[in-house]
Design brief:
The structure is a single chain. By secondary structure, the chain is of the alpha/beta class. It has 2 domains: 122 residues, Rossmann fold (3-Layer(aba) Sandwich); 56 residues, no CATH class. Helix content is 22%, strand content 31%. The strands form 2 sheets. Strands 2, 3, 4, 5, 7, 8, 9, 10, 11, 12, 13 and 14 form a 12-stranded mixed beta sheet that branches. It has a two-stranded parallel ribbon with strand order 1-6.
Length: 226
């Protein structure tokens, strides 16, 4: 698949969903290259930031918004079988994506974003919401969090794993979206998670975004590409 944006540093990817005033700038401290998924370009321009590329079917980007963006930065992918988040994620090459603006507006769009994360679990991506951050747990992940930190786990498919440092250990539990889930667990200190297959979402308070990005970048083993 053709790569539209390649960066040796993490990329901030902006969608058209809800954002707080500082979401883009906070993300760019950790992921300095800026890319927009279709209508997310409007958020960038509102902050007087020019994305390196705008990727999607471009049906949300009207001519007024597009007028300020050089045509060579607009990358239309016209097929309608995937979301703009999916289109953007699979056409950028980077160690990690920090994605903002993909939650909080429409519930169906937010659910679709979770689906994209799991289907592209080989691509390290942190989704930033209003109060939380979320990612697919890689085969092994260490979390430098203090005791009492909320550590929620939600399976998007049948998955098993092991943990250290959780109040309620996950070993021996068969998780499934229509069965046992692991929300509202808590850390007793630093946490280590080991998963047998891709499909478990990790949800942490938003304050731990820098730590999560650092730990994901330091994790050598990821899920293979499908």
């Amino acid at each position: 698949m053709a790569v539209i944006v390649h960066s040796l540093e993490p990329i901030t990817l902006v969608g058209a969903g809800s954002l707080s005033d500082s979401d883009i700038t906070d993300a760019m401290v950790l992921a300095p290259t800026l890319v927009a998924a279709d209508g997310g370009a409007a958020h960038c321009l509102a902050e007087e930031l020019m994305p390196e590329a705008v990727i999607g079917d471009l049906d949300s980007l009207d001519m007024v918004q597009a007028a300020g963006i050089p045509w060579e930065r607009l990358h239309e992918i016209s097929e309608q079988y995937s979301t703009d988040f999916d289109k953007a994620l699979r056409h950028i090459e980077t160690p990690l994506v920090v994605a903002v603006g993909f939650t909080g507006a429409r519930m169906d769009h937010e659910l679709a974003a979770y689906n994209v994360l799991v289907r592209h679990a080989d691509r390290r991506c942190v989704l930033v919401g209003e109060t939380d951050v979320l990612c697919v747990v890689p085969p092994k992940l260490a979390l430098d969090v203090p005791a009492g930190t909320r550590v929620s786990l939600f399976p998007m498919r049948a998955v098993t794993g092991r943990s250290e440092g959780l109040k309620w250990p996950i070993v021996g539990i068969e998780f499934a979206p229509d069965g046992t889930i692991g929300t509202s667990n808590a850390a007793t200190g630093p946490v280590t998670l080991k998963m047998d297959t891709a499909g478990m979402l990790l949800i942490l308070p938003k304050a731990f975004l820098p730590m999560l990005v650092k730990q994901l970048l330091a994790t050598p083993e990821g899920w293979p590409a499908p």
